[in-house]
UniProtKB/TrEMBL annotation:
Residues covered by the SCP domain: 35-160
Record-linked CDD domains: CAP_bacterial
Protein name: Cysteine-rich secretory family protein
Top-level lineage group: Bacteria
Organism: Roseateles asaccharophilus
Gene3D superfamilies tied to this protein: CAP (3.40.33.10)
Amino acid sequence: MRLGWCWVLWLCLGMQARAEGPLPGDCRPMPEQVLEQINRLRAQAHRCGSQTLLPAGPLQWDPSLARSAWRYAEELARRDLLSHRGEQAATLRERLRSAGYLLRTAGENLAAGPVDLEETLALWLDSPEHCDNLMQPDYEHMGLACVAAPGRYGRFWVLHMGRGLRTQAQRSEARGSDTLR
């Protein structure tokens, strides 16, 4: 009879935990896995709303973009709010600059609630604006963060993508490699 009560208790507790949703935990994917998944996604054409976007080139992991994504994911988790308007660094440009990324062009995708990267990417692909952002051929770099927190959403995902400004040294190096010697 004890076994029967244990089974009922386990079943009830399991159903209660499932009804409450997954408990927030560590949701920090490895940069290599993120790059592989996003670059595989970008290597294929995608229908984003009413338009079909051609494959885009691969992105490189950028520590500054990862830092800005992490800071913003932490802020969103603390506020338990999903918004492109931040408290300390109100705009994407300000968030990237404060992390040391000088942008030429950039984009930001946000999600609240998805349990893993696959679910997050599927949500972004289903949204024309987020899909368009993922497939932008101008972007060269990316950084992604996920922060788990108690509250309404549980997990906050931030993806920062961009193309940075070239420094004077990089411009000189590019000119030098283009000239015949």
